[in-house]
Each structure stands twice: as C-alpha cells, then as structure tokens.
Design a protein that fits this description.
Helix 4 (48-61) crosses helix 7 (92-106) and helix 13 packs across helix 24. The protein is of the alpha/beta class and 437 residues long. The strands form 2 sheets. A 4-stranded parallel beta sheet has the order 2-1-3-4. Strands 6-5-7-8 form a 4-stranded parallel beta sheet. The chain starts with 6 loop residues before the first helix and ends in a 20-residue tail after the last helix. Among the domains are: 7-106, Orthogonal Bundle (Fumarate Reductase Iron-sulfur Protein, Chain B, domain 2); 315-426, Rossmann fold, CATH 3.40.50. The protein has helices at residues 7-10, 13-24, 36-41, 48-61, 67-74, 81-85, 92-106, 111-124, 127-140, 144-149, 153-160, 205-208, 210-222, 238-242, 246-261, 274-280, 283-287, 296-303, 322-325, 333-340, 361-364, 366-381, 393-399, 410-417; strands at residues 195-199, 225-228, 268-271, 293-295, 315-319, 344-347, 387-390, 407-408.
Length: 437
C-alpha cells in the first residue's frame, strides 16, 4: 500500500513504524475471512484491510479524525486473527494501537463515552477498586433489564459479566483455597528446585477468578519452580493500551520492569491471563525493553507436566483465547497438555473467531460482543463436552452466562490431574460431582 507521510511526520518513530506496517499490506483480502467484525457485518471498513486504509488516511491527515473512522476503529476487537492469516507480515497490532492513541489525543468523544472509558481504566486496573465495583454491582444486578430498556447498554453489559456463586463455572465466589486468602510475596520452595519464576498478579483475574492463581502456584511448585509475587508490580497496561491511553500503559510497563528488576534472578515471568501475556510480550515495542514472559500453558509445555497423574474421565471443549492463539501464536500446546493430562479434548468449530470479550470490548461494544459470544457458545455446546477450558479470564467471564456447562481455566484442570484439588466449578450447586476421578 502506498503512503504519503511527510519527512516531518516520519521523524516520529511511532509514525515510521506504522508506515512500515502499512506498506506491507498488499490488499490480498485474506484477513477478511478471519476478522470477526467483517464476518458479522460484511462492511469493508470493518475488516483489517479497510481499517488499515482508514488508519493511513487518518495518520497522514493528522488532527481530529472523522467520526466514521473512529466508529470503525472502535469496532476492532484487537483479536489479531488477521496477523495469523496475513501472508505479508503486516504488524496490525502496531497500527491499531497507534490509531487508538491518535484518536484518544485528537478526537473529542461525547462526554458519556469519555466518562465510561475513564471509569473502566480507573476501576479495572486496580483490584481493590474492582472489588468495590463488584460489590456495588451485585446490589443493583436486579436492575439489568431496566438498564437495557433505558438504552444503558454498557451498564447492563457490566452486570451480565458479574461472577456469581450461583452460576456454575463463573469465576468468582465458587472457589476456595488457602492460596486465595492471602497474598504472600513467595510460596514454599518446591521439593526439587528447577528455577524461580515471577507469577504475574494481574488486576481482573485475582478478583473474578482467584482460583486460577491458586492452581497455577500449585502446578508450578509441583513442577519444581519457586513462585514469587513481585512487590510493586501493577497492571500490565493492556487495558489502557486498548483504550488508547498509551502513555498510561507505558508508565505501567516501566513500573513493572522496575519491580521485576528488584526481584532478583528468575527463569521467567509467567502469566495465567493470555491477554496480559500478549501485552508483556509487546513491552519491547511499547517501551523498548523485552521481558522473558511466558503464558503458563506455554511454560508448562516447555518444562513438562509433573509426573503424577490421576485417572480422569472428562470431556473438555478447548476454547482458544485470541490473545493466546493470535497474539502469542500459541496454538498446539494447550490442547496437547490437556490430552497428555488424560482429558478427552474437543476442539471448537470456528475456533479462530473471538468470543467477544477482548478487554473491555464486551462493555464498549456490547451488541457485537453478544453476537460473537452467542455464536461461540453455540459452537462450544455442539462439541458435547462436559466443561469448557479457556485460558483468559475475560473469555471465562464472557462465556459463562451463555453456557450450561462450567467454564474453567486449563491450569485448573492440569493442577487437578497432577495432584491438586478438583476445580470448584466441576461440582454442581446441589453437590453432584460433574466429573469422575
């Protein structure tokens, strides 16, 4: 694709990187078949190819973009399915992040949008604030139908995402573990020392699905690794980056780099949230300093599962989180690990399409997100599996209200299969065991 950036514009490294990405696009259209919004809407402007053209025009022109451009950029999920498909190696993540940063700096959004986006960044990146928000959300949850009728779709969407102790498979409320009642800086040394890892603490997951960290600690320890929580670590910056608050994301990244630097020698920085993993692996692009980040499934695949195995009988539908399969290009390892642990793994049709979670997308673009969720839920149900395994807390929260089966993180199943407790979501409220061990 041709560009017409000025020499002055190209003096900005961000613009130079975006020009290089734009010029790689050959308009082949392969990306349209895997783009969720294009599949739903059939509008070229809601395809990666169309958005690249809009972004090029916006960046070359400079200043405030037209509302139509903002609309189509906002509809992008950042699922990065297009990068998996692209034969030319277009760095779409660079382009969409730059576009959002430009929009945030130059476009005057209506005040309700400004308030909502600022509120999401303020709440979701701080676990203590999120806990308060969840408490308040449960108080007003019965008002969800009213919010929907009044057109307050973001508020209604947030209430639908609330974890419930009465919803099987929902993240919060249903798990109990000695590892979720406190937050030590390090856990007991494993019997055989193979290394030392920092486990990313995260923002949303500890509140919505605390059982995931507990399972991860047990599994890593059983595999022979000391687990450390780095003091001073905060949000990875992914949500702020997706909202166009680029400088805020960079500040978070720098704070994390400093915290990890104080933690001493480590083997890896391990994360149980695939969305966070994609962000950590982009630190080289975002702040110029790469880190040894590994998704927990990627890490366990490399070091091997603990030798102990339970004889299990359970069919598992593996939902591939976009941030894992597209953002990090980790595709084969998760289902392979689950099968190695003894589970009957079933892949989901249209597995390349997003479930609609995508950070705060299911709040900001609730209609499209719901359509994608329902499509994904139908494909999952068609597998006939007893449980869904999803490697990202956003996917877990998004899918749980639309499925009759429990939704768990793969690490919970791997922990159970190698000596840990049965995931709480696999026990129905009536106490009926959902899987045989």
């Amino acid at each position: 694709m041709r560009t017409a950036f000025t020499a002055e514009q190209l003096a900005d490294p961000q613009t130079a990187a975006s020009q290089a990405a734009i010029r790689k696009c050959v308009h082949c259209g392969f990306c349209t078949a895997t783009c969720p919004t294009y599949v739903l809407l059939g509008d070229e402007r809601d395809s990666p190819r169309g958005r690249i053209e809009l972004i090029r025009e916006m960046l070359e022109t400079g200043g405030p973009p037209p509302t139509s451009t903002v609309t189509h950029v906002d509809r992008c999920l950042s699922c990065l399915a297009c990068t998996t498909t692209c034969p030319s190696g277009v760095d779409y993540a660079q382009l969409i992040d730059h576009a959002r940063e430009h929009i945030e700096a130059h476009y005057n959004r209506p005040w309700p949008e400004k308030l909502l986006r600022a509120g999401l960044a303020w709440v979701l990146t701080r676990p203590a604030r999120l806990r308060v928000a969840l408490f308040l959300g449960h108080l007003v949850r019965p008002m969800e139908p009213l919010f929907t009728r009044l057109g307050l779709k973001p508020l209604a969407a947030m209430l639908r995402l609330l974890p419930s102790p009465f919803r099987r498979g929902a993240g919060g409320g249903g798990a109990s573990s000695e590892l979720t009642t406190s937050t030590p800086t390090r856990y007991p040394l494993p019997a055989r020392g193979r290394g030392r890892v920092i486990l990313l603490q995260g923002c949303v997951e500890p509140v919505m699905a605390p059982q995931v960290r507990a399972a991860a600690v047990r599994l890593l320890s059983r595999a022979g690794f000391e687990v450390v929580l780095a003091s001073g670590e905060g949000c990875c910056g992914a949500l702020s980056e997706h909202l166009g608050r680029a400088e805020e994301a960079r500040a978070m990244a720098r704070a994390n780099l400093a915290a990890w630097g104080r933690a001493g020698k480590i083997t890896a920085i391990v994360t149980t949230a695939a969305g966070c993993g994609t962000m950590l692996k982009s630190y080289g692009r975002v702040v110029g300093e790469a880190v040894p980040a590994k998704d927990i499934l990627e890490f366990i695949d490399e070091v091997g599962l603990p030798a102990e195995r339970r004889a299990l009988s359970l069919t598992v539908a593996y939902h591939a989180a976009c941030s894992l399969q597209h953002g990090q290009q980790i595709k084969a390892a998760p289902p392979r690990l689950l099968a190695e642990a003894g589970f009957d793994v079933r892949l989901v049709a249209e597995g390349h399409l997003c479930c609609g979670s995508a950070g705060a997308y299911n709040i900001l673009q609730s209609d499209l997100a719901t359509r994608l969720r329902d499509r994904k839920a139908a494909n999952i149900a068609a597998t006939g599996a007893a449980v869904v395994a999803a490697g990202n807390v956003g996917c877990m929260a998004q899918l749980a209200p639309a499925l009759a089966m429990p939704v768990v993180h793969p690490v919970e199943l791997l922990d159970w299969a190698t000596g840990g407790p049965k995931p709480a979501a696999l026990v129905a409220p009536e106490g009926v065991i959902q899987a045989r061990a």
